[in-house]
Design brief:
Strand order of the largest sheet: 13-19-14-15-16-17-18
CATH architecture of the largest domain: 3-Layer(bba) Sandwich
Number of strands: 23
Structural class: alpha/beta
Largest sheet: 7 strands, mixed
CATH class of the largest domain: Alpha Beta
Strand content: 25-35%
Radius of gyration: 22 Å
Distance between the termini: 6 Å
Helix content: 10-25%
Shape: globular
Bound molecules: flavin-adenine dinucleotide
CATH superfamily of the largest domain: FAD/NAD(P)-binding domain
Length: 409
């Protein structure tokens, strides 16, 4: 079981971070590759965790602290694995790293962003806002080092940014690099993306600004998000007084995602509590086929008991703009009636689509595209790229992946 070669962990969300830390704390070297400039994956953008409703700082901050101490983890952000050859115990991989244009002299003081007028779409805030072209994703970003989107920045701003940094951290000439590494095991932890609900024709086709998805709702409710945690309607900034949560937005539908992602009901129940806290007078609806709360049944019961929340077993058949409001047409399954409900905003509970695009190896997947362990190549899938799951489950999964990696030497 002695492993001299490092393990390559691809994906720096909760699954990848947990796997890397498990191995590192056993004294084993790890190369952690994340495609975005910051770690944390979806969890970094949550307002709160279910079921305890604590902030994600609970789990992530502890992991970041452990990462800071882990001298045997080599982290590459803005990086992708483009070639995998060999097999368990002896892989050769190519990693392509994009330039960050900000070196490790950065103290995250923010002077560069103050000097910068150019903006870019804020992907961390799920496109609900813009950021400066030089930015940190959030106050708890890891690594705590700015990143420059050079293409989004005009020439005049580039000079101002460089001048504003008194530490000489802005390096406009930085070039990308291509690394070849020899690794003993590979853990694939690239997570999921939300299903593109604009493909669901009866849910607004992505054309109604006040129809958002559940990841956008996390940012809207967060005090560090684009509205400072106020529930403001994306179209006109009006305070939201009624919200509808639409379950199975594309899920359990043979034309879209045939499977249940398992966590969307819990995510909506959690987000209902955001609305009730931020706007206690707001009316909240949840339309579902059936609520799947799994081991968190008590959490569901708590939300159900709230008089301001109407949980309706009903399938949403259409969402339309009706004057100032959104109109939802719902087939009420219990009464058998077609009902109409007008709200300020609708939140689509979109399911999880595994991030398995552009894999640099021939993948084995299940019927729904989730990555399976491939015995010939030996690449170990973990977390939501393997199956939809909550954070507690993916952390357990990560321990299993670390053990498997250990055994591959
Ligand atoms: C709206 C919503 C709310 C939720 N709320 C909760 C909650 O309150 N409590 C809870 O327990 N669970 C919750 N979940 C589930 C939680 O999001 C997942 O359990 C968790 O994000 C899984 O982590 P992961 O690392 O597997 O995937 P991700 O979080 O998706 O992370 C994957 C990482 O891999 C990176 N990556 C992707 N492709 C590549 C590539 N090719 N190369 C390198 N890196 C790559 C991504 O940038 C990302 O950093 C929620 C899910 C949703 C959708």
């Amino acid at each position: 079981m002695s492993q001299s070669k490092p393990t390559l962990v691809v994906g720096g969300g909760m699954s990848g971070i947990s796997t890397a830390l498990e191995l590192s704390e056993l004294g084993l070297p790890v190369i952690l590759v994340e495609r975005s400039p910051f770690l944390g994956g979806k969890v970094a953008a949550f307002n709160k965790y279910f079921p305890k409703l604590c902030p994600p700082t609970c789990g992530l901050e502890i992991n970041y602290k452990r990462l800071r101490k882990a001298a045997n983890i080599t982290l590459h952000t803005q990086a992708r694995v483009t070639r995998v050859e060999g097999g368990p115990g002896d892989y050769s991989v190519t990693i392509e790293v994009e330039p960050r244009f900000v070196n490790d002299r950065c103290t995250a003081c923010g002077a560069c962003a103050e000097a910068c007028a150019s903006e870019r779409e804020d992907d961390f805030n799920q496109s609900l806002a813009k950021t400066k072209a030089i930015y940190l994703s959030s106050p708890m970003a890891y690594p705590r080092r700015y990143v420059l989107d050079k293409e989004a920045c005009d020439e005049g701003d580039l000079a101002k940014i460089q001048e504003a940094c008194k530490y000489g951290a802005v390096d406009l000439e930085e070039e990308g690099s291509v690394l070849t590494e020899s690794v003993g095991a590979i853990v694939w932890a690239t997570g999921f993306s939300p299903y593109d609900a604009s493909r669901v024709e009866y849910l607004g086709r992505g054309e109604l600004p006040d129809v958002i998805n559940n990841l956008q709702m996390e940012r809207l409710a967060d005090k560090t998000g684009p509205t400072g945690g106020k529930l403001l309607r994306p179209s006109d900034g009006k305070e939201v007084t009624s919200v509808a949560f639409v379950q199975c937005a594309g899920s359990r539908d043979l034309k879209h995602l045939a499977y249940c992602s398992g966590i969307c009901c819990l995510a909506s129940l959690k987000q209902i509590s955001y609305v009730r806290e931020a706007a206690p007078d707001a009316k909240v609806y949840m339309f579902h086929i059936d609520v799947r709360a799994g081991k968190y049944e008590q959490f569901y019961a708590r939300i159900q008991a709230d008089e301001g929340v109407e949980i309706v077993k009903g399938k949403v058949a259409g969402i339309f703009q009706e004057g100032d409001s959104l109109r939802l047409q719902v087939e009420d399954i219990e009464s058998g009636e077609a009902i109409k409900v007008d709200v300020d905003m609708a939140v689509l509970a979109t399911g999880m689509v595994p991030n398995t695009q552009d894999l640099p190896f021939e993948a084995s997947t299940d019927d729904y595209g989730f990555l399976m362990m491939d015995e010939s190549k030996g690449i170990i899938p973990t977390g939501c790229v393997r199956r939809p799951a909550d954070v507690a489950t993916v952390v357990q999964d990560a321990t299993g992946a670390a053990m498997r990696a250990l055994c591959q030497e």
